[in-house]
Design a protein that fits this description.
This protein has 1307 residues and is an all-alpha fold. The chain has 53 helices and four strands. Helix 26 runs parallel beside helix 28. Residues 1-116, 1138-1193, 1225-1245, 1260-1289 are annotated as: Disordered. Residues 328-413 form the SCD domain.
Length: 1307
Amino acid sequence: MATLRSSSSQSHSSSSPSSGSSPLRRAVGTGPRSMSASSSSSVAVPCDDRDSDQTSEGDSESLSAGEGSDFEDNLRRNVKKRAAKRPLKTSPVAKRPKKGSQMVRAHGQKESEPPASDLFDAVKAAKSDMQSLVDEWLDSYKQDQDAGFLELINFFIRSCGCKGTVTSEMFKKMSNSEIIQHLTEQFNEDSGDYPLIAPGPSWKKFQGSFCEFVRTLVYRCQYSLLYDGFPIDNLISLLTGLSDSQVRAFRHTSTLAAMKLMTSLVRVAFQLSLHKDNNQRQYETERNKGPGQRAPERLESLLEKHKELKEHQEEIEGMMNALFRGVFVHRYRDVLPEIRAICIEEIGSWMQSYSTSFLTDSYLKYIGWTLHDKHRDVRLKCLKALKGLYGNRDWTARLELFTSRFKDRLVSMVMDREYDVAVEAVRLLTLILKNMEGMLTEADCESIYPVVYASNRALASAVGEFLYWKLFCPECETRTVGERERRRSPRSQRTFFHLLLSFFVESELHYHAAYLVDSLWDCAGPQLKDWESLTSLLLEKDQSVCHLVARGGDLSSPSRKPGEISLLTCERHRCHGRWGGGVLGDGGWPPCDSVFHPPATSDLGDVQESTLTEILVSSVRQASEGHPPVGRVTGRKGLTPKERKIQADDKVKLTEHLIPLLPQLLAKFSADAEKVAPLLQLLSYFDLNIYCTRRLEKHLELLLQQLQEVVVKHAEPAVLEAGAHALYLLCNPEFTFFSRVDFARSQLVDLLTDRFQQELEELLQSSFLDEDEVYSLAATLKRLSALYNAHDLTRWELYEPCYRLLRKAVDTGEVPHQVILPALTLVYFSILWTLTHVSGSGASQKQLLNLKGRMVAFCELCQNCLSDVDPEIQEQAFVLLSDLLLIFGPQMIVGGREFLRPLVFIPEATLQSELASFLMDHVFIQPGGLGSGHSQEDHLQIEQLHQRRRLLAGFCKLLLYGVLEMDAASDVFKHYNKFYNDYGDIIKETLTRARQIDRSHCSRILLLSLKQLYTELLQEQGPQGLNELPAFIEMRDLARRFALSFGPQQLQNRDLVVMLHKEGIRFSLSELPPAGSSSQPPNLAFLELLSEFSPRLFHQDKQLLLSYLEKCLQRVSQAPGRPWGPVTTYCQSLSPVESTAEANPQGYPRSKKRRIEGPSRRHREDISASQEESLQLNSIPPTPTLTSTAVKSRQPLGGLEEMEEGGGSELAFTQGQPLLGAQRLRSSSPQHFQTPLNSLGPGLGSRLTRLSLMEEDVEELEIQNDSSEEWQGTGKQSSPSEHGLDLLDFTELNTEVSVPKTDWKAG
């Protein structure tokens, strides 16, 4: 069969939206012409003269729209030529409509025509067998071909969501473009949904049923009707025209139908090619027979059959060419991503179904181009289509040119921003790696390796599989059963772990092997769970053995004489190895395909042993717990029953294997803290009951001995913590061996306590200790502190000796700081364990007071340590002090623990002050930028930053739990902007929680923070040019950030923002200039900071604040004609809508005047001074009962009052009277009308004009509907008539008014 030829370059112009013809006419004007066949592949569709000329010249390019002829005319002529093949036309039989179907007809449709919705309703319901449905339609089609075909066309039209139908008169007299235009006019699009994308359960399966119907239709017609007069050409022509429509529903649905039709035709063409090849073989076999055996009649029948198959094949090829050039070439780059995805998905299926014709570069290029699509679904379809191709090794030869052209793009897609796309890209590259040897270079692979440590587990696992096939299984594509068994042998397993070590250590991509183990778990789980090989590698002695296997010889058991050590070199990669004598095999070194190679000897270095230990612990944890490491995201919520069964079995296996070996591992690495700490963590993943059930108590004794030795030998915090936790796991009273473990623990604590008592007496009696004695005492205290953290050591009474030690350190300063740090922690744990004992309801008053006395005494020691010269002691004292104050804070008695009230401790003012001072000196220091994180200094800076964040978090918790005064939060909030990168999240959370506790107090604290910063700057720089300093600009940024923290709830925060402005104005004028001086008050620049909060105000509140500012400024003398800059800036920020506030000649701010007619102006001028003295926050006209969001009022604010000068209470701000609401209701403006919200109809927009929304002389007051909002401080809920809404803040309304688009055109 001839290969189909694409004409994308010629036909792209036909779908240009800039064509001069109308879109609907252009929709069908281009599609038919683009279906003319090339000279090598004839289409069984006759053409008119112009098309014939083009065909004879071998040109298959598409004609532009509007050049003159419609392809449906040619199709109709073709149908007439094939009319002789049709069966005789019988009288139409009335078809019984399906139950529940509805007959939707266009105007003028006759009653005798078949209903348009029978097929559609049946496919939508998806309840009957699709083959039976198609057979039923075929029966009706054979009885009345015209009516049956119209029913099929109307099915596709109805599937687009169009309400109209195509009648027989329309089909006979109108061209396709006219039919589509007529249907477009009848397309009553109530919403943007159509059947393919409509929500709801009834449409959920429609697309699948629709595609299945098209597939079944072609399948049932492939042997008869497809070649015997079925007007498939007319259907293709209609679908081609619809696919070029600008109506999205037409274009999407018809493209899906055309592509599924093409897919079915491709399968038919493939079957025809198989029949044709079979027929050709039969013909050749019959012709090669001898003259006596040859059957001429059979040869003639085979030849006739071959001719018929060839005609059918050419006819199918013509249909496929028409669909490909008329639909696919235009729609694979459609603006709608769903359409592009359909095209790419289907062309991938064509290549897999009929690779002989479609798996060529002329078709592959469409997938390659679409790899750059901006939509994830399209890129995903491209990769999935390519996966189906690269998965077949027989097709890889035809993909070499495509791979070399688009390989770089495929490799770059590993870093795609969409994880699912990146995962598919890695899986595709894995197939290329397995089936196309040498296609991926080392540079390509090295760019993929780092992704194995990605946070997304699916992506990391995919790269882990790629890594496994590239480095650990280089011969995986030719493996056999014997090879599989060989790789699972101990030698192959050791080689695997050597390669794994080499990759992790030499790549230097990450510091934690747990993420590499997790990435390889899905593909190399059996190898990673080979704990026997892991432990044997860790426990083996020094042996010079090479584990690489050479051709012709085994290097693992050489006959080596002492001293015969030579150097071998891999000639390809120059990797060196030690060889202990012997003779290489005849083949020499094997070809090496890996970048990383195992070491030639089994001797592991210190780094390799540490890494292998971490790999062992990580694999044990993964098998026991079944979840990825911390920070790696997985979409799974839990394990399946089968996975839980495997997890339980693995836990038993690893426990049985490691229980005897763990003491040996601890004995070998007992002096190495880096290896001992992770080994001790293995107990966390054991099934400890096996010690009892399998009679392994002797191994428990060995473990306890090694555990005691490790604790006594080491002083590193990580080792001591791991040891104490391991001992805690074993000290479970439910275990039968608890008495043994408890006895061992008592022995260990007795040993350490006796040593501590002896060394403490030496310290207290002697005035000088050498370094060894100091180290010994500090190490003993660290061990006891670690044990005290996990175990109750109260009966050893360590509080008193430690307290004496700390008291001497505070009084004399002669105790080394190495001793003070663990002693502080030890006393802290002692207090907590004592609290645990007295928390029961049976505690006596004496016990509570004794504990309270110990806690207070320790707090005094910590307070003294805050002024120590050693910063470590200061930070440790601060951490312990903040924790204790929080534990013994007011919340201790919450939850029915009133009997603990004697233990509640509130710090004194001096202690609170010292805590705040410590925070300023140790946390809010000059921020420094962190480096890349690779150098030692960068790591040190990161650790220091974490410690400072810990200190700040402890202080903030004291604030939020009421231990410290909330006003102390100003010391934290004022650094919000400057230290945003370091502590922004902590401060923001503290601010949010503080606002939830007390909104009003939190707002005052924000203002207090700004006051403190302003006062500090004023004292340093003076009042001159203050607002031009960089520090002042930073303060403005901080004020802006504070303003944004109020959020979008403008009404909820209204009283708070007004209060903040009011107190800010008072502060700015709190200090007056000397008498007779014309200079501005020193705090006046603070008004510029207040201006950052002005956008949070309602417009009517801005007017009130302007009046209040004017009243306050009357007490300040000012040179005439010279307004102060801060006053002008602040007034401009309070100007409604536009910055039009001006200062009067005396420098006082002038409230904005509105154009007021008649009595309204006189009413405003008659307001008495007594009314101005009391500024009412709720001085807002009452809300009309039913008001539209577009209502504007020209009436003035009737009762504008001003705030009292000095004694105005906050209650006066929040409890005011509604003003003259009747005037607002009696508005006489012609643009003002009241319409009930529940009666608003679609004509509302026709009564609203843009001019009515943008009047310049209208004040910015508007009716507010949030009538149920509770005002802070009022003690009552406001009625619907007490709230106002700015017109520009109509988003506060909860009622939505729907206005049709057409109604707005009148404006």
